[in-house]
Specification:
By secondary structure, the protein is mostly helical. Helix 1 (16-24) packs across helix 2. It has helices spanning 16-24, 28-38, 45-55, 63-66. The protein has four helices and no strands.
Length: 68
């Protein structure tokens, strides 16, 4: 499994769904649909999203993108 970090590419708001999709080997679109459907159920989905946004580290830039 991949490390749980927010990617720099493929994210819409905070990159949480893209990070979870990478971690579990699914597409980011599928993970976003799962999140939206889960928001129809009672529970703290938005708070969990915000917490993951704050707690997950951002992906480090690759050495090729930082080279001059």
């Amino acid at each position: 499994m991949a490390a749980l970090v927010r990617p720099r590419d493929g994210r819409m708001i905070g990159g949480v769904c893209a990070a979870l999709a990478q971690r579990f080997g699914t597409s980011a679109g599928t993970m976003r649909v799962i999140f939206v459907v889960s928001c129809l159920l009672p529970g703290p989905q938005f708070l969990l999203y915000l917490a993951l946004w704050l707690l997950l580290p951002q992906e480090r830039p690759s050495s090729a993108s930082t080279a001059w």
